[in-house]
Description:
Elements: H1 3-19, H2 26-33, H3 37-43, H4 47-68, H5 75-89, H6 93-101, H7 103-116, H8 119-134, H9 141-158, H10 171-186
Helix pairs in contact: 1-2, 1-4, 1-6, 4-5, 4-7, 4-8, 5-9, 5-10, 9-10
Amino acid sequence: MNDTRDRILQVALDLFIEQGFDKTSLREIAERVGVTKAALYYHFASKEAIFRTLMQPAFELQQQAMSLVTEHPTLEEWSAGLARLVESVIPQRRLFELFENNQSVVRAVGDRMMAESDIADVHELMHGRLDAVLGDETTPLADRVRMAGAVGLVMGVLGFAAGRAFLNVPADELRPIVIDAINDVLRVD
Length: 189
């Protein structure tokens, strides 16, 4: 990526979070970046194209999460997989704030993105895998409850449930605390 494109994305993310997608104009993004609208259009065809680019890491996280869900994982494997997911999610925490503050746009743009790609299939497959692992009666019920609770912990702290509570906590401080909490829930070392 180049610096101008990165600056456009950062400014757009800030503005979309602060005032919402609908209330943010391309002119305003261009002015804050210090480029012309023509220069902005060189990098992005539309405001929706910027939003789609900002959403893309969430779909990549979804694919990564799916790859962590294997058949019959041990609690230790579940812990290691969630720790890897935490490593990927922490740098993307502001995405959840973007999504929370722009829910109607996320639904509309997300639906179009899903229709244009295999994202919906990946999402459905991920839920199917989670359901299979958590519903596998050969795994003790207590382990399955802990596994589900650990997933909820990650999403609760890093996702929507916590809102802005942990956004300003430095990643290096938050990461080990979340991983320790996962291991506490799973009762692994």
